[in-house]
Design goal:
The complex is a heterodimer of chains A (173) and B (288).
Chain A lengths: L1 E2 L5 E2 L5 H19 L6 H6 L31 E6 L2 E8 L9 E6 L2 E2 L2 E3 L5 E3 L10 H11 L9 H4 L14
Antiparallel strand pairs in A: 1-2, 3-4, 4-5, 5-6, 7-8
Chain B lengths: L2 E3 L7 H17 L1 H11 L18 H19 L77 H8 L17 H6 L12 H9 L13 H19 L35 H4 L6 E3 L1
Parallel strand pairs in B: 1-2
Classes of the chains: A alpha+beta (173), B mainly alpha (288).
Chain lengths: 173, 288
């Protein structure tokens, strides 16, 4: 018998898929119950524009400077721009209640792009999953950099499941 | 008796053919795409709530070890002679060397749309249609070395930097830790440029295309890459024999990581197995 992370003795011997549903539910419970701890941090992180500097060495200490809004007349919590011929649209969905920190809704040419937040306040996207960027707009631009010519993000409706956009454990319950 | 996982550069013509054929058969049966989806499902980032099992977490190594074992088991149901080869990217570093040959994984994507045009996983073969991708393209994409802004593969020195750390992982057990073998190998750095991608992460970027996205399993090089990562874990274990998987005990309720990481004797979802039970796979397979 193996003890699971939530403390319950686990006797699951069925296929992985069965266990996976439990994982998703657990993740969603955690999401709804504990987001208060993240209050304000994403708002601050989200307001930073793309930075143009390099840092060196393997160490940390990457402290992004506070920055003005994105200069598109939309404020710090939204962007609407054309980048490499792609239409990037993003907005911070305002928090609902104290347990919500808000989340970014982003599209590239009208197709949703799921963003994930890293513990250091940076962002990564479904397209570019193995490094992170200082703010949502930079993460979205980096995703566009990775898209080949003519490639479109898969429409959410085409999959009929959340997992395509980063899993049921993400910010899109 | 344990079977052998080989360096992909040492596979015979017949071994290459059987490995490829088994992969294509799993794809034909729909089993392969289940692996693609499972990897997407378990990617939980550490800036969000929830249990992290596969990435940005101590169980990055045992999770992928078990994931490879599941794929290998499926391959061996098709052909009992097949094992997952590893790609030693500290040695085979050219865009034309193994595994990028026509008898293995095929070559780079073409410049216009990054579509892989050669080898058994080219879309035109009809055998490798991407169904669970990030984009709506049905063909496999690669951008070896990132043509527009070149990036190098990790070096032996980069690997040594990770291997020489005697501690498996450190609190807070996430992508922000700067010490510990696990994250030095997984490769979450900070900042931009060369420090943003390290070791495991950097190889995903170097291959590019499908491999840099959430659906990276769509490129079969995923398995060869992770077999080498798994091999590096065994090397680390041999070098630091008194050191084990950490954390040994679950984080306490006052910790930010409470119920968010898997301790040594806790169940590692989706399987009914613990990191402790996955630390030594020597009775199942060995590396040549």
């Amino acid at each position: 018998m193996v003890v699971s992370v939530d403390g319950a003795a686990d006797v699951t011997t069925g296929p992985a898929r069965k266990a996976r549903r439990g994982t998703r539910r657990s993740a969603l419970r955690g999401l709804l119950g504990a987001t208060a701890a993240l209050a304000l941090a994403p708002l601050v992180a989200a307001s930073r524009p793309a930075r143009r500097q390099d840092s060196h060495g393997h160490g940390h200490g990457h402290v992004p400077a506070p920055a003005p809004a994105l200069g598109l007349g939309l404020g710090a919590n939204a962007f609407d721009e054309t980048y490499l011929g792609r239409h990037l649209l993003g907005r911070l969905v305002p928090p609902v209640g104290v347990a919500d920190t808000g989340r970014w809704e982003v599209t590239v040419d009208g197709r949703p792009l799921h963003l994930m937040r890293r513990a250091d306040g940076t962002w990564l996207s479904m397209v570019d999953h193995y490094r992170s960027y200082a703010d949502p707009l930079e993460a979205v631009r980096a995703a566009v950099d990775e898209l080949g010519p003519g490639q479109m993000l898969r429409p959410a409706a085409a999959t009929g499941r959340h997992t395509h956009m980063g899993g049921d454990h993400g910010l899109h319950p | 008796m344990a079977y052998i996982r080989k360096d992909v550069s040492t596979l015979t013509t017949g071994e290459r053919r059987r490995f490829v054929r088994a992969l294509l058969e799993l794809k034909r049966r729909g089993e392969y795409d289940e692996f693609v989806r499972m990897h997407i499902d378990y990617y939980t980032s550490d800036g969000e709530r929830g249990l992290r099992t596969a990435h940005m977490t101590p169980s990055f190594l045992p999770w992928h070890r078990r994931f490879l074992l599941d794929l290998e088991k499926a391959l061996r149901r098709v052909d009992p002679s097949v094992t997952v080869p590893y790609w030693d990217w500290t040695r085979d570093r050219a865009t034309t060397s193994v595994p990028w040959t026509a008898d293995l994984l095929g070559g780079n994507g073409r410049r216009s749309d990054r579509q892989v045009m050669t080898g058994p996983f080219a879309h035109a073969t009809g055998n490798w249609t991407i169904r669970d991708g990030v984009t709506d393209t049905e063909f496999l994409t690669r951008d070896l070395g990132r043509a527009r802004d070149p990036i190098g593969l990790p070096t032996k020195a980069d690997v040594e930097w990770a291997l020489s750390d005697p501690v498996y992982d450190v609190s807070p057990w996430d992508s922000t830790v700067t010490r510990g073998f696990r994250n030095k190998l997984e490769g979450w750095g900070t900042g931009r440029g060369s420090t943003a991608w390290l070791n495991h992460n950097r190889v995903h970027r170097w291959v590019g295309g499908a491999m840099v996205g959430g659906a990276s399993v769509n490129d079969p090089v995923f398995w060869l890459h992770h077999a080498f990562i798994d091999l590096l874990w065994t090397r680390w274990q041999r070098r630091h024999r008194t050191h084990r998987y950490l954390p040994a005990e679950p984080p306490l309720p006052d910790s930010s990581q409470f119920r968010r990481v898997v301790a040594r004797h806790q169940r590692l979802p989706p399987w009914n197995v613990t990191p402790d039970q996955l630390e030594d796979a020597g009775r199942i397979y060995r590396y040549a």
